Amino acid sequence: xxxxxxxxxxxxxxxxxxxxxxxxxxxxxxxxxxxxxxxxxxxxxxxxxxxxxxxxxxxxxxxxxxxxxxxxxxxxxxxxxxxxxxxxxxxxxxxxxxxxxxxxxxxxxxxxxxxxxxxxxxxxxxxxxxxxxxxxxx
Length: 138
Hints:
The strands form two sheets. A four-stranded antiparallel beta sheet has the order 1-3-5-4. It has a two-stranded parallel sheet with strand order 2-6. The chain has 138 residues and is an alpha+beta fold. A hairpin with a 4-residue loop joins strand 4 and strand 5. It has one domain (2-137): Gyrase A, domain 2 (2-Layer Sandwich). It has helices at residues 12-22, 29-37, 40-48, 71-80, 100-109, 113-130, and strands spanning 2-8, 51-52, 63-68, 85-88, 93-98, 136-137. The chain is 49% helix and 20% strand.
């Protein structure tokens, strides 16, 4: 199975930090987001303290992958987590998408080629965005 990230929500870390702050702030989410986009150090500080219990802050985004896989491999992924979407592009190529929460849950629950590829693609986004910040998952 070959998995290539082709698109993702931009400003993912400020989006997640906004979701965290929205629950405790009287500021409008759009104002929080704009301020956070201009302050990567504050975003890093918020995310470094984040211990995810239920993962709802990771629902505010979308990731899309180009997947080369057999029908059986795609069915196996869908049987393990029904929140991925797959659209056939040709005999062995698929467009797949999910939110970050779904991808993280899959990675936590499964040790297979798909989970490894998901993990690598998410790590690559993190490296590009905030120099490799990784959120502690509990």
